[in-house]
Design goal:
Number of helices: 18
Distance between the termini: 33 Å
Number of strands: 7
Number of domains: 2
Shape: globular
Helix content: 40-55%
Structural class: alpha/beta
Radius of gyration: 21 Å
């Protein structure tokens, strides 16, 4: 599942915050830990990116400059739907590495509070991972606060929950946008930079969503129900984090300046006028997305290249395969937390290869639960709740 950002914000009551309230909330600036992302790249995503997803960044040779020096530009992208947000993680970690972790060139993502509040919604139950990697819980106060962020840019997925639940039958079809990011662009006169995420719709393919079915599940508070062969596999916890080896493309789109489209101040605009601008932004993003899919989305897996790369990177085998990701991620967290490498700044070092499998399993026996149907979920939920009580919001031991 990806971040249902805008829908979380749009359902909250809108109000103007005082500067004192915003200043008091600026502690969220310090939750981002570039060293954490550097360590994740070196220990985890180096393997996953180079020998599995093979991401390509089109047009991101340089990160665009702010048009308004006081406020970040807003990056916006399409949801991939029906899958754990590997695409957002690959994009974020990859750009940070690309720009050598320069805080003036990175972005902070506005993410659904459920991502930071629910153990299973973290990568393999790693508490604090979203916030340390730059994520900020989606609410109006946080959005307003981040619009004064002195470094870098912001990222949002404006489709929200409908984008997550649109299903493979609506792949690459942008769903209705919320207006939160439009309001911020208009209010602070900052640009929106769309980019298209291509091929990530195939991370978990052939899982469908139907309005008639969703309406029935809405009655019990479930926003949508995924239907497909892999739906049955979710009784096995590992399948929740499953990803197919798509070659991800992130394609920079046309930079937009919505605040230039109106001849009046933001405070004087009607809801209808804001909605019209939202629809125009959505239409322009859809055109960019269609063009990117036509150019880069015709062969999502590029199997021949995948086989070649896996052979060239065979030293990573088998840990480049999703079956072994639970071991890698839990070993990373074990070293980061238990060996206190968040304090010492020593590199997290995960030895790869078949010879290390049993040693890693011995150190991280909880990973067996990922492969136990149904009962494995109960074990992991109990494990996550118990572990989380011992850690703060950034995944560090409580003092």
């Amino acid at each position: 599942m990806t971040e249902n950002t805008s829908s979380n914000i749009s359902t909250q009551k809108k109000r103007d915050y005082t500067q004192a309230e915003i200043d008091h909330n600026k502690f969220i600036y310090d939750q981002f830990d570039p060293n954490y992302v550097r360590q994740m790249n070196n220990a985890l995503f180096r393997v996953i990116d180079e020998a599995y997803f093979r991401p390509v960044y089109v047009g991101f040779e340089e990160m665009p400059e702010r048009n308004n020096p006081s406020h970040p530009i807003i990056l916006a992208s399409n949801h991939s739907g029906m899958a754990f947000p590997w695409d957002a993680m690959v994009f974020g970690c990859g750009l940070l590495k690309r720009f050598d972790y320069d805080e003036n060139k990175i972005f902070r993502a506005i993410v659904a509070p459920g991502l930071s509040g629910i153990p299973a919604m973290h990568p393999f139950f790693m508490k604090g991972s979203w916030k340390m990697a730059g994520g900020v819980d989606a609410n109006f106060l946080n959005f307003e606060t981040m619009m004064q962020y002195p470094k870098g840019h912001l990222l949002i997925y404006p489709e929200g929950i409908p984008g997550i639940g649109k299903g493979f039958n609506r792949k690459y079809q942008l769903q209705r946008f919320a207006t939160s990011f439009i309001r911020m662009s208009l209010k602070y006169k900052t640009d929106i930079l769309p980019y298209s995420t291509v091929n990530a719709e195939y991370v978990v393919p052939f899982v469908y969503s139907f309005d008639s079915v969703n309406r029935q599940f809405n009655k019990i508070g479930v926003p949508f129900m995924a239907i497909g062969v892999l739906t049955l596999a979710l009784v096995i916890p590992w399948a929740f984090y499953l990803a197919f080896p798509v070659k991800m493309h992130f394609v920079k789109g046309t930079r937009l300046s919505p605040y230039k489209w109106m001849d009046k101040d933001y405070e004087d605009m009607t809801e209808e006028e804001i909605g019209t601008i939202r629809d125009r932004v959505k239409d322009l993003m859809q055109k960019d997305l269609d063009a990117a899919v036509d150019k880069y989305g015709q062969s999502p897996f590029q199997v021949k290249e995948l086989i070649k790369v896996m052979w060239e990177k065979r030293a990573y085998f088998p840990y480049n395969l999703p079956l072994f990701w639970p071991l890698m991620f839990h070993e990373f967290e074990r070293q980061w937390v238990q060996e206190r490498k968040y304090e010492t700044k020593e590199p997290v070092d995960i030895n790869l290869g078949w010879g290390t499998f049993f040693r890693l399993m011995w150190r991280n026996p909880i990973t067996l639960a990922y492969f136990i149907p149904i009962l494995g979920w109960l074990i992991l939920i109990l494990y996550g709740n118990r572990k989380w009580k011992k850690l703060d919001d950034l995944g560090k031991p409580l003092k």
